[in-house]
Amino acid sequence: MTGTPYHTTAELARAAGVTRRTVMHYADLGLLTPDSVTASGRALYGPYALRLLRDLMDLRALGLTLEEARDMVTLRRATHTPDGTYRHDWTRADVPISDERLQALQARLRTIQSAYERQADNLARFDRWLTKRFTGGAAESLEG
Hints:
Blueprint (H helix, E strand, L loop, with lengths): L8 H8 L3 H9 L7 E2 L5 E2 L2 H15 L4 H14 L19 H37 L9
Antiparallel strand pairs: 1-2
């Protein structure tokens, strides 16, 4: 464990901006697994767990269900090493998700991506307007 910044459950929660209970809930569901457990039973999480937790929070914020988020984590674990490095040698056999569920997940992700693409101009326009508003610049019309 030397050299790797391991986090306790509370530290992982604080680093991700969530509650300790959220981390424990995701661990209970098998979405997060500790990288190590101390002799006293304390779970220790490595840097990749923080990335997975942030990904889970983002996926949930995008509207994915827990089951869809679980599939995304499962897919990531199948295609990446425990430290988060992409595995170029992974095969379909490494992914324990049915083709039907993968197709449903792909359709869901495409729907979400399309919605964000449709809103990209609006988001940029609102950001420009708010930036001008709060930096003292002249406010431009939201139509432009």
